[in-house]
Amino acid sequence: MTHPPLSSRLRDALGSLSARLLLAFLLPTLLFLSLAGASVYALARASLEDELGASLSALAAATATQVSGERMLTIEPGDDVSGTRTWRALVRLLDGVRTASGVRRVYAVDARGRVRADAGGGLPVGTELPDLARDRLELTRVLAGKRAASQVLFTGSDGLLYKTGYAPVVQDGQVVGAIGVEGSAAFFGPLRRLWRTFVMASAVALTVLAIIAVFTARGLAGPLRRLMDSALRIGRGDLTTPVPPEPTREIGVLARELEVMRGALESRDRQLKLMLAGVAHEVRNPLGGIALFSGLLQEDLRAGAHADANSHVDRIQREVAYLQRIVEDFLAFAREQPLARAPMEAPDLVSNACELLSAEAHGKGVSLEVSAAPAHLEADGSLLTAALVNLVKNAVQAAPAGSPVRIRGELRDGRYAIDVQDRGPGVPEAERERIFEPFFTTREQGTGLGLPLARKIARAHGGELSLRSTPGETVFTLSLPCPAPGALAAPAP
């Protein structure tokens, strides 16, 4: 199964990030505006409808108090044609209410729903009012002596919405009819305009949020894309191009960490190349010697010169031992060894390293002068001993015969410093910068890994290895962290 290239997948992820940010900005806002707008509109409409119904029914009740039920019932069909005085008086009353209140229509009906007077509607006396069939439930409440308003808005011939308020006409404690008042729901015009304004404002807000989301997505995608390009370059083996810093805090941290990783990879790659070149260079000489002396050995054996053959075998064995030391030093330097920390005494570390070199120093006529102040360390004893042995061995080899090599350990600025001093010719200034490089050596049989390995061990412990050299004096200083009293763990039984 094939997979798309890493660059394609990263670009797809960045595109998806932009889309997700856009949705994260717009979707909640759209849902909120829609729900909030619809809820506010519904509440406003319901409140205004209730207020209109209450006003119309109150106007109807006020009108009903001015209507005589007894006289209203005397109005018969045809009175509107002949224009009887009772009919004219009732119509005049209703028309005055209509004009004064600005409603569209005011009418009076009997208990059976037949028109007795209609101001604004023009229905003849005795006609059954069609609107009452729509408001049958409300009319039932009115005939029971209560005010009511139509629950449903209806559309008039002029295209506007209307509502009707009802109130009972009472005669001698009995409901004999009802007054109906039709009023226009004129507030729905401004309410609709308000709704349209809200929708337009919401659209503008969503557009502004979309623009902000796009710029925010670009602001995030740009640095991430640059990080992606840097990661791809590192993945392709380009370890020399630095990772550019980013101003955004979180992405800036990623950029810095990626740059640290790139630097570490570059340093390790450079060390690996140096080590490979050094191994190839160091191995070539003993291999040439082995080839030469094995050929001479073969010739001597054929000629029967066994005495010379033994010397050739000795030389071959020395070259093989040197090859073995090169391989061991190379593996020790290249291997990442975990530290086995344990409590130890600083004087024991110094004395153990010096004891291992005492025979070699005596053979060269060099004395070892040791002084170590007491201190507690938490370290890998075997690795530190190997590092210190390298330092003392170099000092013994550099020291003139009969001169001392001083090894002194003391507390210095909160750390434990071990100085290894010799009276040799010193390290030339041109070589001081390279002396800790792998495979750099001035000795014929040196691998050039002793000092780099010692510094690597020191840094693994949180310490440092430094050099101070003048003609006639060279001092290597191994500085180690010194835990506070009581911070060391108790040794295992």
From TrEMBL:
SUPFAM superfamilies assigned to the protein according to its UniProt record, in alphabetical order = ATPase domain of HSP90 chaperone/DNA topoisomerase II/histidine kinase, HAMP domain-like, Homodimeric domain of signal transducing histidine kinase, Sensory domain-like
An example Pfam family from this entry, by short name, is HisKA
List, for all copies, the residue spans of the domain called HAMP. Answer: 218-270
Cell location: Cell membrane
| Reactions performed catalytically | ATP + protein L-histidine = ADP + protein N-phospho-L-histidine
Q: How does it sit in the membrane?
A: Multi-pass membrane protein
Could you name the domain of life of the organism this protein comes from?
Bacteria
Domain Histidine kinase span(s) in chain numbering: 278-484
Q: Name one GO cellular component term.
A: plasma membrane
Class of this enzyme = transferase
> Which UniProt keywords are present, listed alphabetically?
ATP-binding, Cell membrane, Kinase, Membrane, Nucleotide-binding, Phosphoprotein, Transferase, Transmembrane, Transmembrane helix
Q: Write out the transmembrane intervals.
A: 194-217
The EC designation for this entry is 2.7.13.3
- Work out whether the entry's keyword set contains Transferase: yes
Report the SMART domains cross-referenced here: HAMP, HATPase_c, HisKA
Q: Which GO terms describe its molecular function?
A: ATP binding; phosphorelay sensor kinase activity
Name of this protein: histidine kinase
Q: Which organism is it from?
A: Corallococcus interemptor
